[in-house]
Specification:
142 residues; alpha+beta; 4-stranded antiparallel beta sheet; 2 helices; 32% helix
Amino acid sequence: MNRIMRTTHAERTIRTVVSASAVCGLTFGLGACSEAVDKVVDQTYEVTYEVTGTSAEEIRFHGGGGKAMEPEIETVKAPALPWRKTVTLRGIMPPAVMPAAPDAGAADLACTITYRGEVIEEVKGEELLTSGGCVAVSPVPD
């Protein structure tokens, strides 16, 4: 019975050491990740959103407010199409524009996100219903 207790104690000790090592590794790894995020979070970049089609009920987009990982969403109700807006975003904030069709079909709606003259995301037609719009990764280099 003593031998069983030692084995169980040894197993607990090993698990504790492994867990502590994992926590330390994550802490240092996330610390480095956090430093990288802090480095790019103050950088800014401009993107241009564009929505085309015959009509949209509303257009929601990241306009630059809020935090990098929790951007505020701005809304334009009943916009005239084609609609275009250039915004300044910060750091790792993802550019996103989400048009909503006035009815269930979005066959003629399309959205694009342009960065430095190059389209970085484009979604058309029925794909808008499944994707929710155009969302891209921040182009800010790491």
